[in-house]
Amino acid sequence: MTECLLNLKQLLPALVSDGWIEQAQADQLLYRQSLISSKQHPLILIVQQKWRLKRPPHKLIDLETLSQWLASYTKLPYHKIDPLKIDVDKITKVVSKAYVSRFQILPIDVEDGMVTFATAQPFIREWETELASVLRCEIKRVIANPLDIERYRDEFYSLSGSVLGAKQQQFIQSDITNLEQLVELGKVKDLDSNDQHVVRIVDWLLQYAFAQRASDIHLEPRRERSNVRFRIDGMLHSVYQMPTPVLNAVVSRIKTLGRMDVVERRRPQDGRIKTRIAESQQEIELRLSTMPTAFGEKMVMRIFNPDALVQSFDQLGFNTEEAQLWQALISHPHGVILVTGPTGSGKTTTLYSTLKHLAKPELNVCTVEDPIEMVEPQLNQMQVQHNIGLNFASGIRTLLRQDPDIIMVGEIRDQETASMAMQSALTGHLVLSTLHTNDSASAMTRLIDLGLPAFMIDASLLGILAQRLVRTLCPHCKQPNRISSEEWQSFVQPYHLEYPTHTFRSNGCDQCRQTGYLGRMGLFEMLIVTPEIRKLLHQNAGVEAIRQQAYQQGTENLRINGARKIAQGLTTMEEVIKVTIAME
Question: Model-level pTM?
Answer without folding.
Answer: 0.78
